[in-house]
């Protein structure tokens, strides 16, 4: 770790520690991690409770929606409602839901007639592929532009890159997705579309390396939409953090020692400016599991986002509950991990 982090211990703490008195850093970190884990478990418990009741407030009768076009009699509707357990009192439904959840049984989908865990397992891979690639590109692009913009404050590059990122960040995701779909997918006038507009692969998808290229072509538009609306967060956080580090004394001392500007930025300023982005990156990793509902719906990407949208449309209570809990629990766990990692990386947080 660079000089400012090593010297970040407050003077009062250093004075309080006598010779040979080493504070139990590892013990303190463990206690901190356990306290965060306890908070995460409490949050997950609240999510389980809230998930059941919130989705019951949605309008629509799942049994009648599932019976559309089948001319079912009231007796048949009652039997279907009994089969799904929707004729039980709400408190009994809640007890069944909690008991199954604790056994890692998310129930059976009303619409697909299959276990929710199986459906989630099938859709998880495409979501991790799309959102994972998008996250890597967004983080890399945002940190690179944020570093250049912060180091060259008020330069033309700073103004242009910050302005473009803020505009893209302000644009609604569905509007940008539809625009890219229309321009680069469907085409405008005599200009034909360039990229596929739906799905993860072609109907007659080839084998081998050609299949990889086919999937990559289908990923271009949804991945571009994800990156465009996300990378601004990393750019702005990195730029702000670097601006704070540039004004620190250790940067002035490094320059006074005759170090080249690139060395001062790479070896001293950037490593310390990266710390605030740790929490942001871990938060986005949590959202990877949920994918992007809007983007996956626009491009018919067969991931968890589209699965969640289909569950809301029915409504399919068990499928909604399962996908929502998975998304929420992933975000909670990643936020907890981010807090612990941040404490381990930054001595200033440990001494606070």
TrEMBL record:
Keyword Transport: yes
Residue ranges, annotated region (Disordered): 1-24
PROSITE patterns from the UniProt entry: ABC_TM1
Residue ranges occupied by any ABC transmembrane type-1 domain in the UniProt entry: 124-338
Range of residues in the leader sequence: none
GO biological process: transmembrane transport
GO cellular component: plasma membrane
Transmembrane segments: 37-58, 124-144, 164-188, 208-232, 273-299, 319-342
The keyword Transmembrane helix belongs to this UniProt entry's keyword annotation: yes
Lipid bilayer topology: Multi-pass membrane protein
Biased composition (Low complexity): 1-17
Pfam families: BPD_transp_1 (PF00528), BPD_transp_1_N (PF19300)
Keywords: Cell membrane, Membrane, Transmembrane, Transmembrane helix, Transport
Subcellular location: Cell membrane
The family this protein is said to belong to: Belongs to the binding-protein-dependent transport system permease family.
Name of this chain's protein: ABC transporter permease
């Amino acid at each position: 770790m660079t000089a400012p982090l090593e010297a970040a211990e407050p003077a009062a703490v250093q004075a309080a520690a006598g010779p040979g008195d080493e504070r139990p850093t590892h013990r303190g970190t463990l206690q901190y991690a356990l306290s965060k884990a306890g908070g995460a478990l409490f949050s997950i418990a609240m999510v389980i409770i809230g998930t059941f009741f919130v989705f019951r407030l949605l309008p629509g009768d799942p049994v009648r929606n599932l019976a559309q076009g089948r001319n079912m009699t009231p007796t048949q509707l009652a039997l279907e409602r009994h089969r799904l357990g929707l004729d039980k009192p709400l408190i009994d439904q809640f007890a069944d839901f909690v008991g199954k959840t604790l056994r890692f049984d998310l129930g059976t989908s009303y619409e697909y007639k299959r276990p929710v865990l199986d459906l989630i397992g099938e859709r998880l891979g495409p979501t991790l592929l799309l959102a994972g690639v998008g996250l890597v590109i967004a983080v890399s692009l945002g940190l690179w532009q944020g570093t250049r913009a912060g180091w060259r404050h008020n330069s033309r590059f700073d103004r242009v890159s910050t302005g473009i990122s803020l505009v893209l960040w302000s644009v609604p995701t569905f509007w940008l997705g539809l625009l890219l779909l229309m321009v680069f997918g469907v085409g405008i006038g005599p200009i034909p579309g360039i990229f596929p507009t739906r799905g993860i692969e072609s109907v007659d998808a080839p084998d081998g390396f050609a299949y990889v290229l086919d999937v990559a072509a289908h990923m271009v538009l949804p991945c571009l939409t994800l990156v465009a609306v996300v990378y601004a967060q990393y750019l702005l956080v990195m730029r702000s953090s670097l601006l704070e580090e540039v004004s620190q004394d250790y940067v002035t001392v490094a320059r006074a020692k005759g170090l080249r500007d690139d060395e001062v930025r790479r070896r001293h300023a950037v490593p310390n400016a990266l710390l605030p982005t740790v929490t942001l990156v871990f938060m986005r990793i949590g959202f990877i599991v949920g994918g992007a509902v809007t983007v996956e719906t626009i491009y018919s990407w067969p991931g968890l986002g589209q699965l969640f949208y289909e569950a809301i449309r029915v409504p399919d209570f068990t499928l909604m509950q399962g996908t929502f809990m998975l998304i929420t629990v992933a975000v909670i766990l990643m936020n907890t991990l981010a807090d612990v990692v941040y404490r381990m990386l930054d001595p200033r947080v440990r001494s606070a």
